[in-house]
Amino acid sequence: MEFGIGNISDKVVLLVWNNGNSPSCVQDTVAKLKEHIGEGGRLLLEHVERLQLADYEEGTFDVVLSGLVSPICLSHHVDLLAEFARILKPSGLLIMREPVVEHGTIAGLRSNKKLSSVLKLSGLVNVTVNSHHTSLTDDERSSIKNGLKVNNVFIEDSAASHFSVIEIQANKPSYEVGASTTLSFAKTVGPTVNKDSAAIWTLSANDVLDEDIETVDPDSLLSEEDLSRPDPASLQWDCGVSKSGKRRACKNCTCGLAEELAGGATTNKPASSACGSCYLGDAFRCASCPYLGMPAFKPGEQIKLSERQLKADQ
Questions:
Q1: Comparing 200 with 21, which gets the higher pLDDT?
Q2: Computed from CA positions of residues 67, 83, 37, 96, in that sequence, does the dihedral angle turn out positive or negative?
Q3: Would the pLDDT of 14 be above 90?
Q4: What own/partner pairs with CB < 8 Å and gap ≥ 24 does 46-53 have?
């Protein structure tokens, strides 16, 4: 069974084989591939079960060929396809062949659509079907069936006529896993600002140190009247004058006129309760209550405070 593999001249190619392939078929396939690759390229051969153990670096191969050795009896699982994607170079090519069924899944064989979905989930793109061989000979079906048994895939005789062989190719994306790039976002256009208008309100250090700029002497803003000492009599506040012309202090006088008219004598008013709970005790008294620290008393009982209690704490 012949398959076209395209131009692989001067490429680094990996050929993957499995237990169901005969040694003679492997040698024939290697000889044919070397003719396509030429002296400028390189061909490596790896068993499918030892591929991950080989631990190739990322982006090693230009082309990976899997399932090309007769008989075609390899079912590619997700981990294997993900390894293909890892060791391929960006935009590298994967060409593989696999037995498929028309619908659903029979004895571990998938349909064409399911195989394409698995390739995409493995990180590969541009998944296309090169050819679909349905007219297999009895000898080809028998060799494929026997090769699948070696790989622990068993097909009953009644289902042997329901599978076909498909060749499918896919590419690795044009970037490596973890690659980053700068996103380009459109800049928001804001309101335009007139540079000449903005410069009017700009004052730099050079402008302040410029000797050519005339500044105003702050002392010249004061007149002789501002510099003269004020008359102490003019500083006294006159609370008010009655109709009869007599001076009298206003209510809650704080300028000292009330003490001056009273001849310096002050009268102490008896302390009164502002909250009405002073007689109940300290638990019910305000923070500024004059009765703090005193025992509770009966309502209406006259309590006399000493001069020490009437004075504020120093």
A1: 21
A2: positive
A3: yes
A4: 46/14, 46/15, 46/16, 46/17, 47/16, 47/17, 47/18, 48/16, 48/17, 48/18, 48/74, 48/80, 49/18, 49/19, 51/16, 51/80, 51/83, 52/79, 52/83
In one-letter notation, the amino acid at residue 157 is D
- What are the b/e assignments for 166-197, b being 16+ CB within 10 Å? bbbbbbbbeeeeeeeeeeeeeeeeeeeeeeee
* Nearest by Cα to 87 from 115, 113, 56: 56
Say what the pTM is: 0.53
Locate 227 and state its tokens: 């510099």
How far is it, in rounded angstroms, from Cα 123 to Cα 171?
A: 9
Q: Using CA of residue 273, residue 276, residue 278, residue 279, what is the dihedral sign?
A: positive
Q: Where do we find the tokens 């064989």?
A: 109
Report how far apart, in Å, the C-alpha atoms of 176 and of each of 90, 92, 147 are. Answer: 6, 11, 35
Q: 């509770």: which residue's tokens?
A: 296
- Cα(154)–Cα(290) distance, integer angstroms: 104
Query: Does 38 score more than 50 pLDDT?
Result: yes
